[in-house]
Amino acid sequence: MARPGFAFSCQFKVRYAEIDGQKVVFNSRYLEYADVAVTEFWDWTGIAAALGGAWERTEFHVRHTEIDYLKPFVLGDTVEAFVRIGRIGNSSLTQSFELCHAETGEVHTKIEMVIVNVHLPTGKALPIAPEVRAFLEALPGG
Asked: How far apart are CA 97 and CA 120, in angstroms?
């Protein structure tokens, strides 16, 4: 299903292990869904093949996440996770996620996640490499 502003999505089913005693998806699982979706997103972009070493030397860490739970998913629902890069800063990216019901298109969860490019030995933020920035800026926006 197409969604304005998003060029990428992937789908997966809610599994039994993801629901809680209320028979809805447990809150923490939504961040796991974002992690699954963003892994698929990076594969979809082709950035590793296009940039090789420049991308492999980059390590992004989650700095801040905001999540709006609008409606729970339940066992057997098919989630369609939409992902885009919302903002590219000096050393950070903002990733936007909309987790929707695949059949109805209804948005169940919205997530904004800021990730920061870090130098692993020191843990300090590093500017995003120019070639990485150019690649990200050229991604389709939907």
From this structure: 26
DSSP characters for 44-64? HHTHHHHHTHHHHT--EEEEE
SS3 91: coil
pTM for this one? 0.93
* Angstrom distance (rounded) from CA 48 to CA 116: 18
Q: At CA 48, angle to CA 64 and CA 7, rounded to 5?
A: 65
Residue 105 clears pLDDT 90, i.e. is over it:
yes
**Are the CB atoms for 25 and 72 separated by under 8 Å?**
yes
Main-chain dihedrals φ then ψ at residue 42, nearest 5 degrees: -65, -40
